[in-house]
UniProtKB/TrEMBL annotation:
UniProt keyword terms in alphabetical order: Chromosome partition, DNA recombination, DNA-binding
PROSITE patterns according to UniProt: TYR_RECOMBINASE (PS51898)
Stretches assigned to the Tyr recombinase domain: 115-291
Molecular function as annotated in GO: DNA binding
Record protein name field: Tyr recombinase domain-containing protein
SUPFAM superfamilies associated with the record: DNA breaking-rejoining enzymes
Tree of life domain: Bacteria
Pfam families named among the record's database cross-references: Phage_integrase
Biological process per Gene Ontology, one example term: chromosome segregation
Length: 291
C-alpha cells in the first residue's frame, strides 16, 4: 500500500477499533482485511474515498470469490467473503463517525448467512448444563454458561465483569465495557440468577482463598480468569457435543433461541448490545436456513 491517504486511514481505523474496545481478534484481523481492500483500490486506480463506487465493491467481492483458500481446497468461503464486506462497512462507519469523507456500502451478498454448526440446539444446551459437576470448578462452569448463554455476553464482556457488576437484588448484570464502551443492563432471572448466586457464595470464596480480587470469574490461583477456552472444551467433551464451542457459540445460540421463541428483533438487539439492527438480523437468516 503506497497511497499516503490510505496508509493514514488504515492506521486510524486500527486505532478506532482499539478505542471502541472491539475484540482482540477483531483488532488483529480487521486491519488486515481492510489493507487488502485498499490495495485492491490502488491497483484499480481508485486513489480517494470519494472515488469508491458500487462497481468497485462488486468487483472486489468478485475478486475475493476467485481467491484460493489457504486452509483447504477450493476458493474462499462465503462466510469469509462476508467478513470482508463487514470490515468495509465498519471502515465506512469509522470515516463517518470521525468526521471524514465516507462512502455508501449498499452491496449485499446472497447465500447462506452463517455456519449452522456454530449454533447449539436447546437440547445441546441442556447437555452442557448437565455436564457441569457439583464442585468448585463445576459451579464456575455454570456461571460461565450463565454469562455467555443465559446473558448472551461477548467473551470480553463476561471476563471483564467484577463482583459489583452483579446486581442480584435487582436481577441485573451491569456490562460496563461493552463494544464501543457502551454500558447496558442485562436481565438475570430464574436459573441464571441461582447459578451466579451459588458461584458467588460457594465457589468463588474457595478460589479466592482470602485474597483481594474484584474480578467476578477467577482462575484456580484466585486471579481474574483470562480465558474460558479450556473449560468450554471440557464441557463439550463431557456432553458429547461435536460442534465447536466457545463464548460466541453460546451468544449466537441464545440469540437464535430467543428469536425462535418469538422475541422481537429490536429486543434481541438491546439484549445483545448491538449498535445496529443489521448485526442482529443475521439470526433471522439462521432461522430460515434451519427451516
Amino acid at each position: 500500500m503506497k497511497n499516503p491517504l490510505y496508509i493514514r486511514l488504515h492506521a486510524g481505523f486500527g486505532e478506532w477499533l482499539r478505542i471502541l474496545n472491539f475484540e482482540h481478534t477483531s483488532q488483529r484481523d480487521m486491519p488486515i482485511m481492510l489493507e487488502a481492500f485498499l490495495c485492491f483500490l490502488e491497483a484499480n486506480d481508485c486513489d480517494s474515498i470519494t472515488g469508491i463506487t458500487e462497481n468497485h465493491l462488486k468487483s472486489y467481492l468478485g475478486y475475493l470469490s476467485e481467491q484460493p483458500c489457504k486452509t483447504k481446497e477450493g476458493t474462499l468461503s462465503l462466510n469469509y467473503i462476508r467478513k470482508h464486506l463487514q470490515v468495509i462497512r465498519k471502515f465506512a462507519r469509522y470515516l463517518s463517525e470521525s468526521g471524514q469523507e465516507s462512502f455508501a456500502v449498499k452491496v449485499k451478498i446472497k447465500g447462506k448467512a452463517t455456519n449452522i454448526k456454530g449454533i447449539l440446539s436447546k437440547k445441546e444446551i441442556t447437555k452442557l448444563y448437565a455436564a457441569t459437576e457439583e464442585s468448585v470448578l463445576g459451579l464456575r462452569d455454570r456461571a460461565l454458561l450463565t454469562l455467555f448463554y443465559g446473558c448472551g455476553l461477548r467473551k470480553s464482556e463476561g471476563l471483564n465483569l467484577n463482583t459489583d457488576d452483579i446486581l442480584l437484588e435487582k436481577e441485573l448484570v451491569l456490562v460496563k465495557r461493552g463494544k464501543g464502551y457502551k454500558a447496558r443492563f442485562v436481565p438475570l432471572t430464574g436459573g441464571n440468577k441461582k447459578d451466579l448466586e451459588y458461584y458467588l457464595n460457594y465457589s468463588r470464596p474457595y478460589l479466592l482463598s482470602g485474597r483481594k480480587e474484584n474480578a467476578l470469574l477467577l482462575n484456580v490461583n484466585g486471579k481474574r480468569l483470562r480465558t474460558a477456552f479450556e473449560r468450554m472444551q471440557k464441557l463439550r467433551s463431557a456432553s458429547g457435543i461435536n460442534k465447536p464451542l466457545g463464548p460466541h457459540t453460546l451468544r449466537h445460540s441464545i440469540a437464535t433461541h430467543l428469536l425462535q421463541s418469538g422475541m422481537k428483533l429490536e429486543q434481541i438487539q438491546r439484549f445483545l448490545g448491538h449498535s445496529s439492527l443489521e448485526s442482529t438480523q443475521i439470526y433471522t437468516h439462521i432461522i430460515h436456513e434451519q427451516l
